[in-house]
TrEMBL record:
Residues the record lists as binding ATP: K18, S177, D178, T217, G218, G219, M220, A221, S222, K223
Gene from which this protein is expressed: proB
UniProt cross-references to PANTHER family, sorted A to Z: GLUTAMATE 5-KINASE, ISOPENTENYL PHOSPHATE KINASE
Catalytic activity: L-glutamate + ATP = L-glutamyl 5-phosphate + ADP
HAMAP family associated with the record: ProB
Name of the protein: Glutamate 5-kinase
Pathway(s): Amino-acid biosynthesis; L-proline biosynthesis; L-glutamate 5-semialdehyde from L-glutamate: step 1/2
Organism domain of life: Bacteria
Lineage: Bacteria, Bacillati, Actinomycetota, Actinomycetes, Mycobacteriales
Organism of this sequence: Rhodococcus baikonurensis
Family to which this protein belongs: Belongs to the glutamate 5-kinase family.
Binding site for substrate: S58, D145, N157
Location within or outside the cell: Cytoplasm
A molecular-function term among this protein's GO annotations: glutamate 5-kinase activity
Length: 367
C-alpha cells in the first residue's frame, strides 16, 4: 500500500507544495532567501521533469516582523495583518526573483476560507490557477491575511494547501516544514520515533501531535488534519523537511507518506464536509444520530429536537448529537423557521408539500 503511495507521489503530474513559515523565516533574520532559492531549485527541477506545481507559501507574517521592528510573532489580529501586508510583498518578490533565475514567471494568489466556501469565488480561483498553469507560470498561494477575520481564517496554511490540492485536482500534496516527518511525539520534547507511513487512522493511535514553533501556527495537529482532508479527496500526502525538498520532490524515500482513502468523497460531499461554512445547527435525538451516522439515512423532522441559527434552505448546517457533539454536516432542505414548525413531527403528518427529508442522505457527511 505504502509503496504505491510513494510511487503515486513520485509520479504525480500535478502537485501542491506547501512551505511552512519555519522553513522560510526566522525571528532573528526574517525571510531567508537562500533557503527559498533552494526550494525554488527543487520545484523548478520537478517542473522541468514534466509536473505542474502550485506553491502554497507561508511566511508573510514572519517576513514582515523585522521591517516593522517587531521581535516576536504578534498575538493580536491587527498587528499580524499589518506584518502580513508588509511581509507578503517581500515574500512574493523573493519568489519572483528566485524563479526569474530560470526565466520562470510567478503569480500571486491570495485566498480566504470564504473564497473556497463560495462557489463563484471557488470557480474563479480554480480558473486563475488553471490558466497560470497553462501559461507555465507558478502560482504562489497564501491566505489573504489582511482581509481574513478571526472567524474566516483558515486553521492555517496546511488546511489551505489541502483545499487548494482539491481545487486544482492535484495528484499529490507535499508539506514541507522544519521537521523531517511525523513522530510519535513532539521531537522537541525528547525521544520520539519517526513514522514513515500512515495507511489508516489506526496508524495514528498513540501519536501525540503537538503545537508548532515560534513562527509556525498550526503545529503537527494541523498537518494531520490537512493530511486527512487531502486523503478524503483522494490525494496522497508527503510530510518532509524543507531541507530535504530536492529529495521529497524527486521521489526519494524521505518523510512520512499518508495514503489517501481508497474511494474519494464526491466534490459535493467534500465541499459540505471541509469547505463550506455552517450557517446553523440542528439538534438530534439519539435515534436520529444512529440513523444518519451508522445507517447513512436521511435526517427526518421526527428526529430533530431543536434548531439554532438563522439559515435558509440550501445552506450547510451542523448536525449535533446529545451533549452538543457535532456528528455530521449537511445541506438543509428547509429554512430555520420552517424547521421550528415541523421538528419532532413524523413526515407523514406534515403538509404534502413538506414531506421530504430535512437533510437528504446524499447531502450529508458524518464527521
Ligand atoms: N508528533 C510530532 N511530530 C513531528 N513534529 C511535531 C510533533 N508534534 C509537534 N511537532 C512540532 O511541529 C512543528 C511543525 O509545525 P509548525 O511549526 O506549525 O510548522 P510550519 O511552520 O512548517 O507549518 C515541528 O517543528 C515540531 O517540533
Ligand atoms: N498566512 C500566514 C501563514 C499562516 C500559517 O499557516 O503558517 P504555517 O503554520 O507556518 O504554515 C503567513 O503567511 O504568515
Amino acid at each position: 500500500m505504502l509503496g504505491s503511495t510513494r510511487e503515486s507521489i513520485a509520479s504525480a503530474h500535478s502537485i501542491v507544495v506547501k512551505i511552512g513559515s519555519s522553513a522560510l523565516t526566522s525571528l532573528v533574520a526574517g525571510l531567508d532567501t537562500h533557503r527559498l532559492d533552494l526550494l525554488a531549485d527543487a520545484i523548478e527541477a520537478r517542473m522541468r521533469a514534466g509536473s505542474d506545481v502550485v506553491v502554497v507559501s507561508s511566511g508573510a507574517v514572519g517576513a514582515g516582523l523585522a521591517p516593522l521592528g517587531l521581535t516576536k510573532r504578534p498575538r493580536d489580529l491587527a498587528t499580524k495583518q499589518a506584518a502580513a501586508s508588509v511581509g507578503q510583498l517581500a515574500l512574493a518578490h523573493a519568489w519572483g526573483t528566485s524563479f526569474a533565475r530560470y526565466g520562470r514567471t510567478v503569480g500571486q494568489v491570495l485566498l480566504t476560507a470564504d473564497d473556497i466556501a463560495r462557489r463563484t469565488q471557488h470557480r474563479n480561483a480554480q480558473r486563475t490557477l488553471d490558466r497560470l498553469r497553462a501559461l507555465h507560470a507558478v502560482a504562489i498561494v497564501n491566505e489573504n491575511d489582511t482581509v481574513a477575520t478571526t472567524e474566516l481564517r483558515f486553521g492555517d496554511n496546511d488546511r489551505l494547501a489541502a483545499l487548494v490540492a482539491h481545487l486544482v485536482g492535484a495528484d499529490a500534496l507535499i508539506l514541507l516544514s522544519d521537521v523531517d516527518g511525523l513522530y510519535d511525539g513532539d521531537p522537541r520534547k525528547g525521544d520520539a520515533t519517526l513514522i514513515p507511513e500512515v495507511n489508516s487512522p489506526e496508524d495514528l493511535d498513540g501519536v501525540v501531535a503537538g503545537s508548532g514553533g515560534a513562527l509556525g501556527t498550526g503545529g503537527m495537529a494541523s498537518k494531520l488534519s490537512a493530511a486527512r482532508l487531502a486523503a478524503d479527496s483522494g490525494v496522497p500526502v508527503l510530510l518532509a523537511a524543507a531541507s530535504d525538498a530536492a529529495q521529497a520532490l524527486s521521489g526519494a524515500d524521505v518523510g512520512t507518506a499518508f495514503a489517501p482513502r481508497p474511494t474519494r468523497l464526491s466534490a459535493r460531499r467534500f465541499w459540505v464536509r471541509h469547505a463550506a461554512d455552517t450557517s446553523g445547527d440542528l439538534h438530534l435525538d439519539e435515534g436520529a444520530v444512529r440513523a444518519v451516522v451508522s445507517k447513512r439515512r436521511s435526517l427526518l423532522s421526527a428526529g430533530i429536537v431543536g434548531v439554532s441559527g438563522d439559515f435558509h434552505a440550501g445552506d450547510v448546517v451542523s448536525l449535533m448529537g446529545p451533549g452538543e457533539k457535532p456528528v455530521a454536516r449537511g445541506v438543509v432542505a428547509f429554512d430555520a423557521a420552517e424547521i421550528e414548525e415541523i421538528l419532532g413531527r413524523s413526515t407523514a403528518d406534515l403538509p404534502a408539500d413538506m414531506q421530504r427529508p430535512v437533510v437528504h442522505a446524499d447531502d450529508l457527511v458524518a464527521l
